[in-house]
Amino acid sequence: MTTFYCDECKINKTHPSDSCTTGYGVRDDGSKICFDCCGIRDKQIMIKAGNSKTLPLYLVVKEAQWWVTNWPNTLSFQVHHLRKGKHNIAGTRYDVWFQGPDNKTWHGTQYGDWTQIVHCKRIKK
């Protein structure tokens, strides 16, 4: 087990040393944030910047259902509608709609089949 200090929740955390991840994210200043705090922070960013900024999340399949998640999968939303279409450069385009952290409808777009990044924004209705 490896130990690190989360600069967000101010708790020493442990993480399996044989895991394929570190158990934390790193801010620009080098401070570490545990995955749970990453989820809380991503939720706050989504609520604050919802219509004004496109936010990168990930489109994944879990147990035969489509989900939009943050990078460490500590914040996730089930997709309630997915549409697959064509794109002139990427070849494929996926549009998804889901209920976000503010209980409003969000839309996301993923370009191509070689990525999971979905660009998400709250619908202005």
CA radius of gyration is: 16 Å
Kindly state the number of beta strands. 10
In percent terms, what proportion of residues is strand?
over 45%
Oligomer: single chain
CATH topology name of the largest domain: SH3 type barrels
Q: Give the termini distance in whole angstroms.
A: 47 Å
Describe the structure.
The chain has one helix at 35-49, and strands at residues 2-5, 12-15, 24-26, 32-34, 55-62, 65-69, 76-87, 91-99, 105-111, 117-122. It folds into two domains: 2-37, no CATH class; 49-122, Roll (SH3 type barrels). The protein is mainly β and 125 residues long. Helix content is 12%, strand content 49%. It starts with a strand and ends with a strand. The chain has one helix and ten strands; from the N terminus they run E-E-E-E-H-E-E-E-E-E-E. A six-stranded antiparallel barrel has the order 5-6-7-8-9-10. A two-stranded antiparallel sheet has the order 1-2.
Give the helix/strand layout.
Layout: E1 2-5, E2 12-15, E3 24-26, E4 32-34, H1 35-49, E5 55-62, E6 65-69, E7 76-87, E8 91-99, E9 105-111, E10 117-122
Antiparallel strand pairs: 1-2, 3-4, 5-6, 5-10, 6-7, 7-8, 8-9, 9-10
Please provide a brief summary of the model.
The chain is mainly beta and 125 residues long. The chain has 1 helix and 10 strands, in the order E-E-E-E-H-E-E-E-E-E-E.
